[in-house]
Amino acid sequence: IIPSLKVKVKDTTGAGDAFTAGFIAAHIRGASLYDCGLMGIITSGLTIQKVGARNGLPTLTEFNNYIKKNKIKISNLE
Q1: pTM for the full predicted model
Q2: Sign of the dihedral defined by the CA atoms of residues 45, 48, 54, 57, in that order
Q3: pLDDT digits over 15-69, tens only?
Q4: Contacts of 43 (CB under 8 A, 6+ apart)
Q5: Is 14 helix (H, G, I), strand (E, B) or coil?
Q6: Which residue among the candidates 11, 13, 17, 77 is catalytic per the annotation?
Q7: Which of 3, 11, 41, 60 could bond 51 through an S-S bridge, CB–CB 3.0 to 4.6 Å?
């Protein structure tokens, strides 16, 4: 089970697409299924904190800052 993020939701538009993008990005790098799901959840969780499907998508820097701040390890991201 992969836990959800505890975030302030501003707009859920694009959350599913963001999850899929994060999952696939991890998958093509050879991450485990757990880590693919984790990356999807983080990408989606960061997205719903902003308004707009496209504006909400996190940059790679925002994603990396989040996982560093929260000490989250995802395989094969380097």
Answers
A1: 0.90
A2: negative
A3: 999 999 999 999 999 999 999 999 999 999 999 999 987 888 999 899 999 999 9
A4: 18, 19, 21, 22, 25, 57, 58, 63
A5: coil
A6: 17
A7: 11
